[in-house]
Amino acid sequence: MSYPSVYPTGVTVYNPQKCWNGYTIFPARELGAMLMDMNGTELQLWKGLHGFPNKILPGGYVMGQSGERNNAFGMQDLVDLVQIDWDGNIVWKFDKHEFIEDPGEKPRWMARQHHDYQREGNPVGYYVPGMDPKVDSGNTLILVHKNVKNPKISDKVLLDDSIIEVNWDGDIVWEWNCNEHFDEFGFSEAAKNILFRDPNMRSAGGGMGDWMHINSMSVLGPNKWYDAGDERFHPDNIIWDGREANIIAIISKKTGKIVWKVGPEYDTSEELKKLGWIIGQHHAHMIPRGLPGEGNIIVFDNGGWGGYGAPNPGSPTGRMNALRDYSRVLEFDPVSLKIVWQYTPAEAGYIVPVDASRFYSPFISGAQRLPNGNTLITEGSGGRLIEVTADHEIVWEYISPYWGKQFKINMIYRAYRVPYDWIPQLSQPLETPVKPLDVKTFRMPGASPGGWKREIAVPGVIPFQGDTALCVAAAGEGEESDS
Predict the structure, then answer these.
(1) Which of 46, 213, 354, 413 has its CA 20 to 30 A from that of 87?
(2) Are 386 and 26 in contact, with CB atoms under 8 Å apart?
(3) Is residue 454 part of a domain?
(4) How far apart (Å, rounded) are the C-alpha atoms in residues 443 and 420?
């Protein structure tokens, strides 16, 4: 579908009585880390602080990255991970993962961090009652890149994903490398075939295969499954998702082995068929103890493209062979795989499949479960944040006004909501309701609804009674036809 060239930005909907009110942090494109209140008032900008993603810690600290590697030599490699105080001072920094000597560039240490990280004390990087991340001590889990060769996967250089754990002094104390577990992922022979020939090759660094593309990583934390004796869900275990392979997996922190997963195929059991294909997903994590839905997996199922397998009309080679032109936010039971809650185009009030792409972000995005049962959704590619209730009502909406210079989009990688008391430097703001505009009557200056100068009755024409039949026919349901 096409989108209008002009539309409102800022907070367009706000119902304070139904929201979980607090501050929201998000990356404002090239500007830096932006903190705003519920009415969209911009309270602080940490200029130049990259957000891959930005996260707020108690006390008004913010985390992010201070720079990016030259894209000619690396892909989405951030040079470091830093913690900055309210006044912009760096109080913690990690960059000593790999010493980089790119041609024409000054040699330096780099973290090669990308997509996610977690500070000890909190499993998921957002507010959980009683689980505050540490601010002056503790270890940090960091998702990083590493260039490897693995002939089991491909004869090409691979851009591999690694998870490292570093202590407060910056020492690496634990490491896990994705490519070393290739045999555990359950790829079909067709998938292995195309992976070997084309492991999602990128031009950076002379060509390398971004074969898995892990984009989120978090700790499970205390949960009912482990309490009931299921060792797969040990609190120290780590859940991640790989968007290029359509995989969500849990690894044992102790052994590194895959102990639970869904994907890369979603038609191998009745439970997976009911769950449906998860494609190009982001921000898969277990809802922590203390929040509604605790123990369930929540994920922004982007749709778009992803996966490896047999060729089809939409994928002549078999790479990116699963396709869907709308998104879903899914909350599901990790044992039964039953969907517990979801937000899809249907819950948004759109007609599936005719209008389904009106809820659609084919890349980035995320979902945070809030303490009152609402869900903060980042519909990233369109720069849209919404807070929805358990009954799917939108009670807060924000459209970013920040557009990129190279890519003319207002995308938001991921946003987080935190409580007011996490930032003692600010006084709690006013919470002013914002009623949704009535788009049927709102007009730009110079036009007015119902303001036609002449009204002509056409003989023999029956007044239009509504669009229900037309919509049903367009959706392919029923027997209506325009032929």
Answers:
(1) 413
(2) no
(3) no
(4) 36
Which strands sit side by side in the sheet containing 214-219, from one edge to the other? 214-219, 238-242, 247-251, 258-262
Q: Exposed, middle or buried, 453 (CB in 10 Å: 0-12/13-18/19+)? A: exposed
What φ, ψ does residue 233 adopt, rounded to 5°?
A: -110, 40
| Cα Rg of the chain, angstroms | 24
Q: Both tokens of residue 91?
A: 């109080």
For residue 42, list its beta bridge partners. 36
Q: What angle do CA 364, 300, 438 make, to 5 degrees?
A: 90
Number of domains into which the chain is organized: 1
Question: Does residue 341 belong to any structural domain of this protein?
Answer: yes
Contact partners, residue 314, CB within 8 Å, separation at least 6: 321, 323
Residue with tokens 């937000």: 343
User: How many residues does this entry show for the chain?
Assistant: 483
Q: Where in the sequence is the domain holding 108, given as residue range(s)?
A: 12-429
Instruction: Name the strand (E) or helix (H) holding 77.
Output: none
**Per DSSP, what are the bridge partners of residue 145?**
161
As given in the structure block, the two tokens for residue 1 are 């579908």
Minimal CA–CA distance to 33: which of 14, 17, 49, 22? 49
Instruction: Tell me, yes or no, whether 446 lies in a domain.
Output: no
DSSP letters along 243-275, please?
Answer: TTTTEEEEE-TTT--EEEEE-S-S-SSHHHHHH
Rounded CA gap, 307 and 297, in Å? 20
Q: Is the peptide bond before 53 cis (omega within 30 degrees of 0)?
A: yes
**Residue 165: CATH number of its domain:** 2.120.10.30
For residue 482, the model assigns a pLDDT of 37
Paired with 68 in beta bridges are: 78
- pLDDT tens string 330-342: 999 999 999 999 9
| Interacting residues of 441 by C-beta distance below 8 A, sequence separation 6+ | 449
DSSP letter, residue 72: T
Please answer whether residues 404 and 30 qualify as being in contact, where contact means their C-beta atoms are separated by less than 8 angstroms.
Answer: yes
Quote the pLDDT of residue 353.
86
Q: What is the pLDDT of residue 2?
A: 67
CB 209 within 8 A of CB 157: yes
How many CB atoms are located within 10 Å of the residue 72 CB?
A: 13
Helix (H/G/I), strand (E/B), else coil: 478: coil
Model pLDDT for residues 245-288, shown as the tens digit of each residue:
999 999 999 999 999 999 999 999 999 999 999 999 999 999 99
353 upstream amide cis, omega within 30 of 0: yes
Q: Identify whether 462 is part of a domain.
A: no
DSSP 359-406: S--SSS-EEEE-TTS-EEEEEGGGTEEEEE-TT--EEEEEE-----SS
Give the residue ranges of the chain where pLDDT is below 70.
1-2, 464-483
Report which DSSP code applies to 26. Answer: E
Report residue 451: phi and psi, to 5°: -100, 30
CB atoms within 10 A of CB 165: 18
